[in-house]
Amino acid sequence: MTDRPRIFSGMQPTGELHIGNYLGALREWVRIAETDQFDAIFSVVDAHATTVEYAPGQMREQTFETALTYMAAGLDPERVTLMVQADVPAHMELTWYLSTVTALGDLYRMTQFKEKSEEHRNNVNAGLFCYPVLMAADILVYKATVVPVGNDQVQHLELAREVARRFNARFGDVFPEPEARLTNTPRIRGLDGKAKMSKSRGNTISLFDEPAVIHKKLKGAFTDELKLRRGDPGRPEVCNVFTIHCAVTEADEVDRIERDCRSGALGCGECKERLGQRLVAELDPIRQRASELRGDRARVIEALRAGGARCQLLAEATMAEVRAAMGMSTRDMG
Ligand code: ATP
Ligand code: MG
Fold it and tell me: What pLDDT sits at residue 2?
């Protein structure tokens, strides 16, 4: 178990998970877990979620729901470690130390910080700014080398690598450099076809949307502005509906859709109808398993507690190395 390379990834409990989270990350986590090639740790990163306005009374339930969604999507706590970030305070401790080897200029360049500070103008807090350092700590505290994420997190991964390099150069070789791992659909756009699909933007198809809701949302989804009616030639490369087809529809059917969209033979209505059917087929079992798990809360909570206990030990071992390398604490005082 311990000699397998380690994978780490997480999601924020900021709302119901959507098909972007699933097709960009979660489905890949499940596939990776099924190979048993990695020692995989998947986290609900609740401390990250405190960087934006939230209702404290709802955070715990949202954290539970996020973990439940992981399990409903197929992550088996017998084969992977599931944990809640705040259960392992070493993430926060390491964040402090890493922040001392992180350049302010690098943090200012982060696209997510720029976007989120626009979205939350009345709450641009230091935590939002330091988000990428906490993310580096999440990964490095377990010495994870592979991080399956969506495209929007690639920049943060590059920063994590830089932070690991700077730490090692200053204090000795403690951390490996983690690498991002992307799916074929690393960026699903929202229903408006422009911005990234995001929990916080209300532009999502949720993993738990009922079939009728999925079809309704797709009807209103933006496709290609130059294709106004059936018969007009379309451009699949600019169309978000086509991107989602690529993730959930068989390859030969995708080829036919691409050809018939370009020729004009296939209208957007029909194309969306087929996508709706594929999505419903993919998501139905997840929704089903989620509702079963809601009747067995203890199973989810036990998995998270056991995972947290394991991570506590792993993280503490790294922190002992970090403190020794940096000359901190009384532990090694003579
Ligand atoms: P928030 O709006 O609160 O930031 P989010 O939808 O961006 O929520 P996160 O919890 O920030 O979700 O990200 C969880 C994971 O899902 C990350 O690996 C991220 O890269 C991936 N992800 C998020 N949105 C998309 C998307 N639209 N397409 C592909 N991957 C995505
Ligand atoms: Mg996000």
Answer: 58
> Where does the pLDDT of residue 207 fall: very low under 50, low under 70, confident under 90, or very high at 90 and above?
very high
Q: Is the pLDDT of residue 1 over 60?
A: no
Q: For residues 98 and 102, what is the distance between their CA atoms, to the nearest angstrom?
A: 6
pLDDT at 100: 98
Is residue 196 among the annotated active site residues?
A: yes
Distances (CA, A) of 111 to 51, 59, 130, 159, 185: 16, 25, 13, 12, 20
Model confidence, pTM:
0.97
Cα 115 from Cα 94, distance rounded (Å): 26
Query: Taking the alpha carbons of 255, 256, 258, 259 in that order, is the dihedral positive or negative?
Result: positive
Residue 62 in contact with ligand 1 by CB distance below 6 A:
no
Atom of ligand 1 nearest to the CA of 45: 10
pLDDT, one tens digit per residue, over 87-131 is: 999 999 999 999 999 999 999 999 999 999 999 999 999 999 999
Percent of the chain with pLDDT over 90: 98
Torsion of CA 160, 165, 168, 170, to 10 degrees: -110
Q: In this model, does residue 177 exceed pLDDT 60?
A: yes
Residues 215, 276: contact at Cβ < 8 Å? yes
Task: Assess whether 216 carries a catalytic annotation.
Answer: no
Rounded distance between C-alpha atoms, residue 282 and residue 301, angstroms: 26
DSSP H helical ranges for the chain: 19-21, 27-35, 46-49, 56-73, 90-99, 104-108, 111-119, 126-140, 154-171, 211-219, 240-248, 251-263, 268-294, 297-326
Q: What is the pLDDT of residue 95?
A: 99
CA atoms within 13 A on the CB side of 275: 29
Report whether residue 197 contacts ligand 1, using a CB cutoff of 6 Å.
yes
DSSP string across 241-276? HHHHHHHHS-HHHHHHHHHHHHHT-S-HHHHHHHHH
Average pLDDT over the chain, rounded to whole?
97
Helix (H, G, I), strand (E, B) or coil at 149: coil
196 closest CA partner among 65, 9, 18: 18
The closest-lying atom of ligand 1 relative to the alpha carbon of residue 190 is 27
